[in-house]
């Protein structure tokens, strides 16, 4: 199963895919993750969220989270880890891999397939 090189722009993909309801804010993702006993870190050293929230089974430092292999969510570095990004105008999801990625409301999940599914199911 190869990587599907697709570009989804908000508004175009919403009408053609069944997208599970998702959280409205990063704070809601953090609350869901904490309820599941998961850990979160942001893409900034000071804890601010600039682009990506990382959810994982074990705590990871922000530098390690930012060094994850973004070319392929099947890379071993994603084991037990998921990146969560907001889908905004002009957002492009170029590494959509069924099972390893998911649209979750206005969010895009990328990484460990078990954790991706666990997060999507937690909101239902």
Summarize this, please?
This protein has 124 residues and is α+β, with helices and mostly antiparallel strands. Helix content is 20%, strand content 19%.
Describe this structure in words.
There is one protein chain. By secondary structure, this protein is α+β, with helices and mostly antiparallel strands. The protein has one domain (about 25-120). The protein contains three helices and five strands. About 25% of the residues are buried.
Strand content: 15-25%
Mass-distribution shape:
globular
Overall helicity: 10-25%
Main pleated sheet: 5 strands, antiparallel
Q: Name the structural class.
A: alpha+beta
Q: What's the Cα radius of gyration?
A: 13 Å
Task: Offer a few descriptive terms.
five-stranded antiparallel beta sheet, 3 helices, 124 residues, disordered N terminus
Explain the layout of strands and helices:
Blueprint: H1 26-35, E1 39-42, E2 52-56, H2 62-66, E3 81-86, E4 101-104, E5 107-111, H3 113-122
Antiparallel strand pairs: 1-2, 2-3, 3-5, 4-5
């Amino acid at each position: 199963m190869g990587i599907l090189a697709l570009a989804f722009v908000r508004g175009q993909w919403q009408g053609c895919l069944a997208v599970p309801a998702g959280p409205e804010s990063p704070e809601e993702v953090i609350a869901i993750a904490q309820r599941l006993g998961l850990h979160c870190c942001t893409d900034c050293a000071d804890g601010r969220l600039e682009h990506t929230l990382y959810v994982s089974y074990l705590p990871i430092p922000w530098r390690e989270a930012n060094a994850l292999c973004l070319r392929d969510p099947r890379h071993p570095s994603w084991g037990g880890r998921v990146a969560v990004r907001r889908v905004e105008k002009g957002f492009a999801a170029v590494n959509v891999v069924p099972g390893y990625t998911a649209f979750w409301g206005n969010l895009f999940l990328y990484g460990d397939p078990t954790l991706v599914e666990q997060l999507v199911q937690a909101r239902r």
